[in-house]
Amino acid sequence: MNQSNAPIQIKPKDYKSAIKPVWCPGCGDFAVLNAITKALAFLELPKEDVALISGIGCSSRIAAYTSVYGFHGVHGRALALAAGLKAAREDLTVLVAGGDGDGLSIGGNHFIHACRRNMDMTYIIMDNRVYGMTKGQASPTTAPDWGDSKLTPGGTGIRPFQPAGLALSAGASFIARGFTGDPNGLARMLVAAIEHPGFSFIQVLSPCPTFRPEQMNWKHHVQAFEEETSSDPLLAAQRIQADDGMSTGIIYQEDVPVFQPGNGGAPGDAVRFESEFEI
């Protein structure tokens, strides 16, 4: 029998694990999972060459739903874990995923320093403007007049973060905003982010049908940016500030030096590393 020498085509489903997602029906995070697996399949990345690191929250469950290397970390520390991994294993494609609470509240300091450090990894924040897993509290991206509850009577009264603007001012070299209602467009955006040399940040508008059902109307408001991607931070800042937060596309991209600290030895040289701590 003749054996074909044609390469085996990797399919998106090959990057999914056997664990079924427990997100609420209609959650936008399903589309993010599909977009990630489509992007990895398009790039034909071997599963053993990819790592997906996440924090805590509904969206951070995503690491368990893929078949690549994964680490489900603690609240707000996903970027710190990912940076350590990338420093030790420069050869890996490192993806980081989390929510607006995980990444911009307790993880906010890690976020701004990850942007300015510009290590070669991709960070995806699934932004639903609410803490979903802990039953609907206001998050750093929640509007000041939303969330009339015992915790925030009358709303928070606090202006929300602008994730794209925060990333730009902190020094991220690739900034984009996507929407789960356009999973194919989001997959293409992820491909561009992964291929970009440096820290890539994607804010994904991901509706929460349980605690923010009004967000299901986002599909009627989301539109593409009219302007092309800019490498000028001033122009990018003007685009971000003039927008209502519902426009999608790659906002800013610039090639700047990528930070990769020296390993101090060959990867996996645990014996040598332990010897440095001997007394």
Structural write-up:
The protein has 279 residues and is an alpha/beta fold. It has a single domain, classed as Thiamin diphosphate (ThDP)-binding fold, Pyr/PP domains (Rossmann fold, 3-Layer(aba) Sandwich), CATH 3.40.50. It is 29% helix and 16% strand. The protein has 8 helices and 8 strands, in the order H-E-E-H-E-H-H-E-H-E-H-E-E-H-E-H. The protein has helices at residues 29-43, 78-88, 100-106, 108-117, 163-170, 183-195, 233-242, 270-275, and strands spanning 50-54, 69-72, 93-99, 121-127, 174-179, 199-205, 223-224, 247-253. The chain has an 8-stranded mixed sheet, with helices on both faces. Helix 1 packs across helix 6 (183-195), helix 3 (100-106) packs across helix 4 and helix 4 (108-117) crosses helix 5 (163-170).
Q: Which descriptors apply to this entry?
A:
single chain, eight-stranded mixed β-sheet, 279 residues, alpha/beta, Rossmann fold
The amount of beta strand, in percent, is 15-25%
User: CATH superfamily, called what?
Assistant: Thiamin diphosphate (ThDP)-binding fold, Pyr/PP domains
Indicate the structural class.
alpha/beta
What value does the Rg take, in angstroms? Answer: 19 Å
Assembly type of the chains comes to single chain
Helix content range:
25-40%
Unreliable stretches covering 5 or more consecutive residues: none
Which word captures the global form?
globular
Mean pLDDT: 91
N-to-C span: 63 Å
SS elements, strand count: 8
Give the name of the CATH architecture.
3-Layer(aba) Sandwich
* Largest beta-sheet characterization: 8 strands, mixed
Treating each run of at least 4 consecutive H or I residues as one helix, how many helices? Answer: 8
CATH class: Alpha Beta
At the third CATH level, what is the topology name? Answer: Rossmann fold
Number of domains: 1
Order of helices and strands: HEEHEHHEHEHEEHEH
Give the strand order of the largest sheet, numbering strands 1, 2, ... along the chain. Answer: 2-1-3-4-6-5-8-7
